[in-house]
Amino acid sequence: MKICCTVLLLVCLPSVSCAQVPFLKKKEKDSKTHEPDAVADTLRSGTAAQRSQLATELGIMTPNFSNPTAKSDVPCAKFDHVDERRVRLRTDAENAVIIAGSGECDSTYIIVFDKAQKSEWRHLPTVRLAARAQPPEVSFAELIQPGVSEIVVHREMTRDSGSAQQENFVVLKLLHDWLVPVLDTAERVELTMPDRPENDADNVEQSQQSTFHLMKADPNSGASARILEKEVLKQRKTNLTRYRLWSWDPELERFRSSPHDGGEIPQTSPPKKAAAQSAGGAAVQPKQK
């Protein structure tokens, strides 16, 4: 029996570079690493060119004011306050979170860095929050698993027009190297509508205001915390109060809501300036440049 061996020879012609052949292409260099402390310092006090270059590398972009749905390629390079926090967002790594607020860009940026054991810091995708009228309040809370925090956002402005305003309560969780909103619901809504279409002078105002309270589970039960929402709807002299219970669904990796009778509401409400702490975390205080 004869055995025929076929040998495939690859010849690089002068006009064809071997680097153009996909399976011979050299491995691309790892993305540039950034030390969170150095990033925060540059955003606070670096030159305009340094801030612009760093913002481009980290995806800190201004919104496209002419078309909010379009992606902008203009970096945001001026910040009113920059804060850095070391907080664990997953069990098997260290994390650093930079909160950078910019009134010029109408934005608050959440910049997350991740460091696994015996590795260098790496930047995860940057999340932009709208901050046109006022900056959202950002805090950290252990809502799902002890020792691992989620990012809690109060008053994220999602709609701002002459007749409608809406602010949302958002919980962001680090899942699969992405910062994902696992709870996103209206926290405050105000609408002004004509009471009679033929006479715009007579308007009716509707509002919705929600407060959120963390209901901690028994430490020995292994269960995750639940968030109780108290929603108050107002129109003229009519008030309607209803409750929702937000519970973590491990299969969907989201918080899901269900009706609640309001029987486990805390007796006292948190002070106004500590609103972010009502979800179980300490608010990030702005630090001036």
Molecular structure report:
- The protein has 289 residues and is mainly beta.
- The chain has helices at residues 36-45, 48-58, and strands at 81-86, 93-102, 107-116, 122-123, 127-130, 137-145, 148-160, 164-175, 178-196, 199-215, 226-235, 238-249, 254-260, 282-283.
- The protein starts with 35 loop residues before the first helix and ends in a 6-residue tail after the last strand.
- Helices cover 7% and strands 46% of the residues.
- It has two domains: 33-133, no CATH class; 136-283, no CATH class.
Q: Key terms for this structure?
A:
single chain, 289 residues, mainly beta, 2 domains, 9-stranded antiparallel β-sheet, 5-stranded antiparallel β-sheet, 2 helices, 7% helix, flat, disordered N terminus
